[in-house]
Design brief:
The protein is mainly α. The protein contains seven helices and three strands, in the order βααββααααα. It folds into two domains: 13-94, Multidrug-efflux Transporter Regulator, Chain: A, Domain 2 (Orthogonal Bundle); 108-142.
């Protein structure tokens, strides 16, 4: 008979447990600690890290923004600075696009296609890139 040691949700987790639960390498978690001062695992003898449940929720939110919404580390830092870490903690699995910029583009067929086939967050980012490309093309054409 195999008995697994299942921890309560309030229990602290080691870096290997968090790494496994979030499907992230341990070095990524250590790197994020250097980039996000809000992640503060408790360090015990020998430098062993123990993550609190709040740390884990914050890591989930950061992972979601980086891997699902396509934010950069600097972008996530800006989101945390503007909205607070608690905003990410509250619903890490339901995070919306915090930096919602209005998209002004006249290309309706592209906009309709993007709206139907991808999420709002990615659509807005693609539309911003498209706007930037249109502006660059205008600048290049002025040089002719």
């Amino acid at each position: 008979m195999i008995v697994m040691n299942i921890k309560s949700p309030e229990a602290f987790r080691t870096i290997s447990e968090v790494s496994k639960d979030l499907a992230l390498p341990q070095h990524v978690l250590r790197f994020w600690e250097t980039k996000f001062v809000q992640i503060k695992p408790i360090k015990r003898g020998g430098g062993r890290r123990y993550y609190r449940p709040e740390d884990i929720e914050l890591l989930k939110g950061i992972k979601y923004l980086l891997y699902n919404d396509g934010y950069t580390i600097r972008g996530v830092q800006k989101v945390i600075k503007e909205n607070g870490a608690k905003k990410i903690l509250s619903k890490s699995y339901q995070i919306k696009n915090f930096t919602s910029d209005e998209v002004n583009i006249k290309s309706q067929p592209v906009d309709n296609y993007l709206q139907k086939n991808i999420g709002d967050s990615k659509r807005k980012k693609l539309m911003n890139v498209l706007n930037d490309l249109v502006e660059l093309k205008k600048k290049l054409n002025q040089g002719d």
